[in-house]
Structure prediction request, 322 residues.
Amino acid sequence: MSFSLPSPFASHTQKTRASRPLRVGVGRAIAHHGELLQGVFTDDEGRLHRGLVTLPLPQVESIATFWPDNGEDIRTRPANRSKAAYAARLAFQELGCSQATGCLTIETSIPMGYGYGSSTADVVAAIRAAAAASNSVLHRSSICRLAVAAETASDALVFDEQAVIFAQREGRVIEYLPGDFPPLYVVGFRSNDDTTIDTLGMAPVRYESTEIETFRVLRGLIRRAIREQNAPLLGRVSTASATINQRYLPKRYFGVLRQICGDSGGCGVQVAHTGPLMGVLVDAKASDAMRRTAVIAASARDLGFTNIVSFAVNVDGTPAWS
Prediction:
């Protein structure tokens, strides 16, 4: 038997939500360091979806604070955060507070324009700030949907460090992977000769049938790598995905990246498909993992790469970001 609320009750609920006083609300979102896997994957009904697995970077984040006032719209500080303002506006509409006005301040430690997901982090933080300002809860699926509406494609930052295959243009999870990423050290850097790519202004990549079959295999392997906490297997998946990406959105020094990895004991490479970020993965359970990490960072520096950082993923007692 179906049941629905009588319309007078539903109207009263909407009126109550709309008239709810707003308060100062704060939202946060982490960054990522590009992708471990990106391609097309089937859902439970066999339909193909574009999706990705991002490498979380919780050491840096975006913090959005919504300050309600009696202004005419939602403004941002800095003033150039239009996607974040739009995302907050959509969130307030979702929560029945469509007349909300105020100032949205964005404080971020995420470098912009290099593939760290800074735009999505601002958007997700803004949505969470709007929910907090209206003393409301928004589930992750709703945040994803609103984020995609605000910026067309969105990274999986709402899931923090949880491993998922995420349909970035649909805002939904294709698969929740079975656990946390295995312990890793990552040395990240970039080349000034590579630039950020505006993939939203390009036609989506049309993968060949053999590549689609490869993504099916890689999906099974990354599931196994996470279930077994197998960093070398995860590294092989990431390297294979980055190699396929070279056919469509190439990194000029991808060969050098792989050479650094092979010469220094890394277990794989990863890239930001739409930005100049590159990284070498190190199995944190290796007895000399810290030495390997230092050697990789030194090699990248000697070869002229810039913005070299080292960070840990799921490793206890290590420096967060250096």
Observations:
- The two ends are 59 Å apart (CA to CA).
